[in-house]
Amino acid sequence: MPNAPQLLDFVTLEGLLAYGNRLAQRAPDERVDWPAVRACSLPSQLSRVKAATDAIAALVQQAPKGFPDAEAYRSARQTVVDTACGGDPVVFFAAWNRLLAEGALQPLLRAPIGSVLKPTHRRPVAIVPRAQLTPQLAEGRIVLDLGDDRFWLLPRDLADRTLLFTMRHGVSRVESKTHRVGRRLANELDPERGVPRAEAVGAALARMVGVVGRQLDFLNLSNYLDPGKFLHFISRSPNTRQLFERVAAGLAGGERVVPEPAYAHPLESSDFGWVTGMEKTAEAQELAAALGVEVPAAKRLIKDPLYCYPGGHSFFDLYVDVIDGLHRLGQAHPGTVACLYTHSSTLRALMIYLDPRPFHEAFTEFSDYKESQDNVVLLTFEKGRLSGYSTAVGLSQREKAARETWITVERVRKDRVTLKPRQIKRIVALVSGGDFAGAGAALKELRVTGNRLGLKVHFVRHGFLGLANNWIATVTEDDTRGMSSVASSPIGSSRFEDFKDETVQQAAMRNLEPYLEDGALVVLGGDGSLRGARAIFEGFGVQVVGLPGTIDNNIEGTTSLGYHSAVALADQSIESLKATSAAMGTVFFVEVMGAGSGHLALACAYQARAEGLLVNEHPDPDAYIDDVILGTLKQTLGVPNKSHLFVVAERTPHRHHSDGGVHGLVPYVAGAMAQWPPRQGRSGCYAPTQATKATILGHTLRGAPPTPEDKAIAQHVAYEAVHRLVERPDEVVGCMLAYRERAVIEAIPLHAVAPKQFDWELFARMHGSEPSGNLR
Ligand SMILES: Nc1ncnc2c1ncn2[C@@H]1O[C@H](COP(=O)(O)OP(=O)(O)O)[C@@H](O)[C@H]1O
Ligand SMILES: O=P(O)(O)OC[C@H]1O[C@](O)(COP(=O)(O)O)[C@@H](O)[C@@H]1O
């Protein structure tokens, strides 16, 4: 049990009172509607705690009998604040949380709210995975394929049912990731990320409603999904109204007038009173200081669903509001569809309620409700019961397992982060693996930004090899002058397979030791180098950040440094070869790097509109050579001004040479061509001479000069790495900073770094065909 009393035995009344009083004296944030502050002296508070504790214990004793509704529970609790606590919310806070630490509040988690009790068995579901779709479930319903092996079971008519589309606002200016975002905060959507997300939610909902509507029409059933008749409910927070506006625009599709939304209390987010708007880190640090414990222990208390804020508001409190409130909304609007615009905490409460596991267990899973999870929970209210699943709950077994692993591993990563905000004093950087353009620009940016933020910066020569040999030096302005435009890696790189050996890593750690206290290591390199970074992060606790750099561009979720420069340089050569091919009719095979992945080769081939492409990913290169390469040449050889150019990724295996790639292709293709009957020319004309050649661009691409694009990416990720290491180390340590094409930089934990899949669609597009089954 996450909150077993012995794990919270550090919680004292004195500590809680000290902390609560400090909160009450916080300077209010202007965006926050601040609750009334009562100044009470510590002795008078202490004298009231006993009465408060007894009154709360009496309230908890009522729990098994249940509370008629959420309002009854809230007012019973408020009576304790007003009477036993003398109106002092801090006294309530101290008495309640002390009882929580003793485990005395547990009966609340089993209390029925109104007629509603958390189900102990699986509820009827509205969305089911394929494996659970039985004929009985589908009987009398419309079964809609949502993709991803999931089906939505919808009634054929609404009758006395209510459909509830519950949506959360997504990304707002003050983010719940970093701040306590409560109902007292007038929060607004983040214009760059929140507004497009809200529009996307609206578009997705409109699409889904349209698909179901068409099914109903097809079955000659009355279309109850008419957006013109939907009801809309929001909370008081501006971001839920903004979400409504975007979704309503999507649903209306420029045709209908959408009615004004109504206010609904259960859609409010949690009430954190004086804490609303506060940074979560500061909150945990202050509580830890007041209780005289480490921050992780204080976080354990804060994360308990029963932990209350001064005044009594807890996550459990919100849960009661949401569950009771949604049942009421369902009851009040039978035969209709209602759109509910709300906050992530509401969706979290819903998921916990819909999930049949015990409250604490489900809370532990869903307490980290994340951006990447669903934005809409689909609910049906029928015969007094809510059923329905968000896709986050209705995941297939495979997805569920992947998600559980992700949650566990992410927790472990965070536990390994020891660097605190603004603690870092030095950065050590190295470049590893195959070299790439842009490394210089990234290193220079690390030095400049690091120094500007008061950090010492050190470079390691020749990657992990240099770490094992102690080739570490402090760098200054002198050392990095002109570095941004340097090709390859100005501090060297290496392939050093011995680094996979733990004893070699230990030697490297001894060299790194003097830099590790208050320091972080930045590793620039490809997937192998990032595996090396992960090894010393997980094995030795080195606070490491990875920056992706490889001309192969084969790391999922990011553009890697060096890729654009390599493509640009290859493109110059390929276009030159195309020109001479068109002039002379020569057949060219151009080999580019990329033994491990064909992304670079594909980009080069497509951009140059080559006739064909051979990559290592190809399931049958021999068949491709015979069918596509020879087939194309049969048709195009001799066509005036036609070029014949094929891009080949290094070491692509085939039967014409053991080294693969372009090796062996020239004699084979030239030999085949020689067998073809001469093209019919005009009588009396001589046929042009046909030549077949191979060109290997090879390592020129790794040493390409950095393009402005690569320099810009390098500067951006390096700048972010330093800033985030200083300000938010828990978000970047043990991660690779991924550069998304739309210039969004995100942290991907090293354990989640995965190979990028070859783009068969682009491959097919380049060939003017659809990818065939065996290529997918
Ligand atoms: N599993 C690992 N553990 C420790 N070090 C590793 C691991 N994998 C790779 N490395 C280190 O990273 C270096 C570069 O990896 P490599 O795959 O050659 O290049 P890239 O980083 O460009 O993909 C290796 O030579 C080795 O020093
Ligand atoms: O020249 P080397 O060290 O044999 O490496 C060749 C490989 O290195 C690369 O240039 C880059 O690969 P990495 O990013 O994995 O180092 C590949 O395209 C190529 O197949």
TrEMBL record:
Gene3D superfamilies the UniProt entry points to: 3.40.50.450, Phosphofructokinase domain, Phosphoglycerate mutase-like
InterPro entries reported for this sequence: ATP_PFK (IPR022953), His_PPase_superfam (IPR029033), Phosphofructokinase_dom (IPR000023), PKF_sf (IPR035966)
Keyword Isomerase: no
Molecular-function GO terms, alphabetical: 6-phosphofructokinase activity; AMP binding; ATP binding; fructose-6-phosphate binding; identical protein binding; metal ion binding; monosaccharide binding
Pfam family, one: PFK
Keyword vocabulary terms for this entry: ATP-binding, Cytoplasm, Glycolysis, Kinase, Magnesium, Metal-binding, Nucleotide-binding, Transferase
Pathway the protein contributes to: Carbohydrate degradation; glycolysis; D-glyceraldehyde 3-phosphate and glycerone phosphate from D-glucose: step 3/4
Domain Phosphofructokinase, chain residue ranges per copy: 426-723
Catalytic activity: beta-D-fructose 6-phosphate + ATP = beta-D-fructose 1,6-bisphosphate + ADP + H(+)
Top class in the EC scheme: transferase
Tree of life domain: Bacteria
Subcellular location, record wording: Cytoplasm
E.C. number(s) listed in UniProt: 2.7.1.11
A cellular-component GO term for this protein: 6-phosphofructokinase complex
BP-aspect Gene Ontology terms: canonical glycolysis; fructose 1,6-bisphosphate metabolic process; fructose 6-phosphate metabolic process
Keyword Ribonucleoprotein listed: no
Cofactor requirements of the protein: Mg(2+)
Family label: Belongs to the phosphofructokinase type A (PFKA) family.
Protein name in UniProt: 6-phosphofructokinase
Organism per entry: Nitrospira moscoviensis
